[in-house]
Amino acid sequence: MTMILIGFGSGGCSFSRNDTSAYAKADDSDLTGSIARSAKEAPPTDTDLAFARNAASDVLSKGDKDSSQHWENPETGARGSVTPIAQSYAAEDGRKCRDFLASYVNGSTESWLQGAGCQSSRGRWEIHTLKPWRS
Fold first, then answer.
1. Is residue 104 assigned to a domain?
2. How many helices, marked H, and strands, marked E, lie in the chain?
3. For the chain, which terminal residue's Cβ has fewer other Cβ atoms within 10 angstroms, N or C?
4. What's the mean per-residue pLDDT of the chain?
């Protein structure tokens, strides 16, 4: 026979106090670094953009027309993916270039970035534009 014991004693205490002057009061000037800004106020950081640029360079170097590359910044929790759009084109200086869209997700913030990269003489894709997407 198996016996199960359940604790019946759960303690706790409470009190009420009508005098609220003893409690700390905070206003907007009391915010500290431990209180995060709302995600709507948090634009991509420079390191977020660096991760997105790396992913863009990787996916453009694959040359596939239907590929995407995931990226994530473990420091900020931001993440997204980069997808080339349209076909490559020749820049004024003769380099092969291609446009792309990158998603940006951080907390409840979701947005899009647009960019372009061109292939260097060494074959590596260099991202020269990455900015908020304007439809």
1. yes
2. 1, 5
3. N
4. 78
